[in-house]
Amino acid sequence: MASALTVRELSKSFGDKTAVDQISFEVKKGEIMGLLGPNGAGKTTAIRMIMGILSPDRGDITFQFNGKTTSMDKSRIGYLPEERGLYDDARVLETLVYLADLKGTSRGEARKMALDWLERFQLADYARQKLEKLSKGMQQKVQFIATILHKPEVVMLDEPFSGLDPINQDVFKDFIRELQQNGTTVLLSAHQMNLVEELCENIFMVNQGRQVLYGSLDEIKQKHGEHLVDFRYGENQDLSFLKKEPGVSIIKEGEGRVLLRYTGNRSVNELIGLLSFRLSLEEISVQKPPLHDIFVQTVRKRGETIEDPQFN
Amino acid sequence: MKIPNLTNITRVARWEFLKNVKSPIFLVLTFVIPLIMVAVGGISYLTEQSAQEEGLNLAVVDQTSEFYRYLEDHTEGSPVVIETIEAESDDFERLLQEEPYEAILEIEEDSLQRGALTLYTEDARGLNIGNLRGVINNAASSYRVEKMGLDPQEIEIATAPVELETRTVTGEEEDFADMVVPFIAGMALIFAVILTGQILMYGVIKEKRNRVVEILLSSISSLELLLGKIAGFGALSLAQIGIWLGAGLVVALTLIEIPVVNLGAGQVVIPILFFFFGFLMLFSIFAAVGATMKEAEGGSQAQGMIIIIPMIPLFLATPLIMNPNALWARIISHIPPFTPTAVLIRMGGTNLPAWEIASTLAVLILATVLFVYLGAKIFEGTILQYDRSAGWKDLKMLFRK
After folding, report:
1. Taking CB atoms and an 8 Å cut-off, how many pairs form between chains A and B?
2. Which of A252, B6, B182, B295 could cysteine-pair with A259, CB 3.0–4.6 Å?
3. Is A160 a residue whose pLDDT tops 80?
4. How far is CA A298 from each of CA A150, A303, B23, rounded to the nearest angstrom?
5. Model's pTM, two decimal places?
6. Closest CB from B19, B211, B221 relative to A81
């Protein structure tokens, strides 16, 4: 598949602090690509450089529109910044038309499309209200409309799920999938890795400005030689053999149930064989660990720290 | 820095104009403040008029036996009513209490020669002696010249007023238009700076605070945003000045006679050039300063003080008009932030030589280009710094890059 966005050796420092350190990745046309990392990892700085809001110290950013390579065409890109906000003292419809006007959409067309979108989000009654009259959730929806009103070919969503309740998170997940179905390329930056796992095929993980993992989500998980094994077993059975088994570490144990992490050299099927031989199993499930755990372990293996305390 | 796109600048300007022209602060500044000014001016005018017409009941103790006649001659048609009495100074207090006199004027030969008469009253602060002073001065002049032995015709010639007509060395009469256009341009610039400049600065801070600036910068460059804002607020300022001038002209034409002014192209173009570049320079400074600030409550921040700088020549307006060719006035006119207002005020007081108009305009244009560039650079470098105001350290780092 052709690439819509290519980032090469991108770097940016603020004083002594390196925010982005030589990162490179590609976003394929029509895909949802996840840019993942804890808060402060450099995701927003990278996106601001891609959007042309900040100038990189080094590196190249190129887009492909209609098969032609170009450095930037802001009218074909939509952007939802992490730091949300619109004019609170301006009317919703006027604001949407102005922002689409800045992207080169005619005012008449922008007005018509904005009303359609407001209708779809059940906000039509608020079109002529000032934004400050709307609830936070409604404002988020208006901001989302502003991002895509000019029908961009590439959309950058920086932490789109921040501040959303679970119901609205689902609304926006559906909305992002719909963008992809319509052929829009999406670069999705987030720190909630579970949400991104549901949407993205490819991911780029970053910590302290540097690449941690990059590639297809399935491949990353497959390469990560770890499994989570969760099983139930019959009463009065001896588990001591597990403690001697190389690569097994028990995470949780009690009331006839065990959750363990397996990183041994033998295959996971051999481990399941051993368990069923030594115990009377009632239930067993094997999973790859969540992306969050893969990220944390990879960072730790590299001897790095994660600055976001909520992430550890 | 890329060459800005005119369409984007126009889009921003249009938005800023339409958004702010309906804002309560603009409507108050445009309509309520001039009404207050007219009301204050009207009250002051009426007070002055009534003071001029206010009568004064005056008793005169004339020990010269001659001067009273001259006073009588000059009180004709004046609200000062005089009556001659004979009394000693010991009786003055009783007379002022018992008789309807507001004051007693004592005239002695010696004091008349010295030119210092004494007026007795119960409350000197509450007495309006403006009209009386004119009557006494005129009477004293007539009295003195008659004492010199001049006949009435000679007296009339000697006391006739002199009209002063000013001409330049080339023989041209002083033109009212030479004064009025720079004066209006100077005042317009100052008002634009004080009122609209502040709205612009706080508008930038607000856009930064509510984070909308990041969305704008994802569509246009920071220079386009800056120039669009300046153009929008410039149009807003011109609309405001237009409303004031229009209303002022209607009031002036209705109430008073004003001379008809025929303006030449030169009389209009040069002040407008100073206005235009001054406006561009000062507004780019304000927008950049706004970008460095975190909160709109900038009164406590040093940056907020920048709004005062272009107003400094206004504080010096009187000495600038009185001494427009002084060395210090010339120096101030070549210091960029002061240049437009200082030159426009001086142009209201004198005909500046061509070389000085050229040199100050050159300084202003160069400074405008520099300040717009620096303003855009600061704007770009600090507008996304949400968590705190930018300081000197940040600016130093910005320019080192």
Report:
1. 58
2. A252
3. yes
4. 40, 9, 55
5. 0.74
6. B211
